[in-house]
Amino acid sequence: MFVPGSALLVVSARKTLNRLQRTHGAPAAEAAAVFPGVAAAIDQHAAAVRDILDLGVENSSLVPASVLLAGYARGILDDLRDAEAELPFSLLDWQDAGWLHLRLAAVCSLARPS
């Protein structure tokens, strides 16, 4: 369970999410603005991540969203390293992005302020 005084955990989570925003969030959002299929895929992944964190994590309402999202993203990043999947380079590449990259883009979309 999250201890309210754990500011270091929140800072670490924000660092992870900011780094992901540069590698996945911003490029994927740019591609999503051009390609509706990319936008739809990211939206579907975002809904799944939201459900996993809301329904699959006990007492998730007591944990800052940034901490939950960063923890989930770290697991996906581990899988990405194991898969040796290459990061989509261009906007066109995002149309063929794999599950792991789209999932990380979805985490970024959830982490962005509304």
Brief sketch in words of this structure:
Pfam families: DUF6401. This protein has 114 residues and is an all-alpha fold.
Architecture overview:
InterPro entries: DUF6401. Pfam families: DUF6401 (PF19939). The structure is a single chain. The chain has 114 residues and is mainly alpha-helical. It has one domain (9-111). The chain has 4 helices and no strands. It starts with 6 loop residues before the first helix and ends with a helix.
Largest sheet descriptor: none
Give the low-pLDDT segments.
none
How many independent structural domains? 1
Return the average pLDDT rounded to an integer.
Answer: 92
> What is the straight-line distance between the termini?
26 Å
Q: Pairing-aware structural class of the strands and helices?
A: mainly alpha
Tell me the radius of gyration. 14 Å
H/E element sequence: HHHH
β-sheet strand percentage: under 5%
Global geometry: globular
Helical content band:
over 70%
- Tell how many strands the DSSP assignment holds: 0
Number of helices: 4
Write the layout of secondary structure elements.
Blueprint: H1 7-34, H2 36-56, H3 65-83, H4 99-111
Helix pairs in contact: 1-2, 1-3, 1-4, 2-4, 3-4
Which descriptors apply to this entry?
0% strand; globular; mainly alpha; 71% helix; 114 residues
